[in-house]
Amino acid sequence: QVQLVESGGGLVQAGDSLRLSCAASGRTFSSYAMGWFRQAPGKEREFVAAISWGGSMTYYAHSVKGRFTISRDNARNTVFLQMNSLKPEDTAVYYCARDRRIYYSDLSSGLDVDYWGQGTQVTVSS
Length: 126
Hints:
Blueprint: E1 4-7, E2 10-13, E3 18-24, E4 32-39, E5 46-51, E6 58-60, E7 68-73, E8 78-83, E9 92-102, E10 113-116, E11 120-125
Parallel strand pairs: 2-11
Antiparallel strand pairs: 1-3, 3-8, 4-5, 4-9, 5-6, 7-8, 9-10, 9-11
């Protein structure tokens, strides 16, 4: 069983930055692509960013490209989401996710998630 635990959310003003972290349990973290999704009130969960198992490839939703950066530290079993120039429309619960396919790198085709974190709230005031 894999556990994903997010942290780093909070209340910020428009234009501010936040860095989310997701700590994963288990010994095989470095073999799997990871991603971030978000869900705003009354909306469906949407993809935000993904990173390949080795960290060499990343993929972003159009709405966050150029503002958000996903990264990972396989030695620490942690994936990060650096969020800059935050906007009120970025307000959502942010979820960390693991793709179920080992050594998966075709990020633009989407993630097939087998594990989710519990989520962390990000609120951006105008």
